[in-house]
Amino acid sequence: MNRSHRRSLRRRIVWPAVAAALVAAASSAWAVAASPSASASGVPGHPAVSPKKAKPPARPIIDINSASRQQLKTLPGIGDAEADRIIAGRPYLSKADLVSSKAIPAGTYLSIKRAIVAKQTKQAPKPSGKG
């Protein structure tokens, strides 16, 4: 075999095989990196580590039947006038009564409904005056 025949054979057989092996290795590495079980370091079999999202600080739940004007004003969309209407309309059987009694608009209620509660106060029974 002469030298030119060996080069020709190398170009036709060896280099395509090398290129195919490189493509296969690259595609399998991409599949491992894209799999949900791959970690950030790319080690297969280890669970992926996702960054934790910081939770916003928990807002205290406000009882609309007993909260002060200042406490009510801490709610988004509640100003002086709304706080006064809430206080004037007490007691509320449910927090949805804020909208039905027109103390606040429905949009404001939707933004604060997870931050409020309407607790019922237990009243002592009135003396009957008998006996």
Characteristics:
131 residues; mainly alpha; 5 helices
Topology of this protein?
Elements lengths: L2 H32 L27 E2 L5 H5 L6 H9 L8 H4 L5 H7 L3 E2 L14
Parallel strand pairs: 1-2
Task: Please describe what this structure looks like.
With about 130 residues, the chain is mainly α. About 45% of the residues lie in helices and about 5% in strands. It has 5 helices and 2 strands, in the order H-E-H-H-H-H-E. It has a two-stranded parallel ribbon. The model has no long low-confidence stretch (mean pLDDT about 80).
Strand order of the largest sheet: 1-2
Total strands: 2
| CATH top level class name of the domain at 62-117 | Mainly Alpha
Mean pLDDT: 78
Helix and strand sequence: HEHHHHE
Computed CA radius of gyration, to the nearest angstrom: 35 Å
The low-pLDDT segments are none
Count of helices?
5
Structural class based on helices, strands and sheet pairing: mainly alpha
Work out the helicity level.
Answer: 40-55%
Q: Note the overall shape.
A: rod-shaped
CATH topology of the domain at 62-117: DNA polymerase, domain 1
Please give a quick description of this structure.
The protein is built from 5 helices and 2 strands.
